[in-house]
Amino acid sequence: MAITRADLDRLDLKLLMLLQENNQQTSEELAERVGLSPTSCLRRLRRLRESGAIMSDVSIVSPSVAGTRVTSIVLVALEQEHLALLDTFKNRMSAYPEVTQCYYVTGSADFILVVNTGSMEEYGAFTERAFFPDKNIKSFTTFVAMQTVKFTTRINLDVS
User: Fold this and answer.
1) What is the rounded distance in angstroms from the CA atom of residue 43 to the CA atom of residue 25?
2) Strand, helix or coil at 116?
């Protein structure tokens, strides 16, 4: 059974907020900031990881390391939304390394993708591989990001 917010107390939430800022903090540093012993803090961290409350510990790479990138936000509308066709589309998009995010949504589009490529030419090649052969794609609309105004992976857990 997946862990939910109801399974977490105030100290768990504080730990999660601190880890979202910097997951390289030691258990001693975290314990001091939340008012726990290092052993108790380690126990909580282990439980949060094993339960899936912490999905993964990652490093976010600076875009400058990757060089010039084109970030495209793509709205995809499907012809039919049968479960098998939806699953096929989800699996295909999950397999493309260019697709960094994929959301099944309500509204005029069925999916919103965030696609990251090295150039517009690479994006064009991606669309030729990913969209044009799929007869279930009715249409797709691309928005190219001109500037990143805000980017975060942090989820506000309102610990107050």
Assistant:
1) 15
2) strand
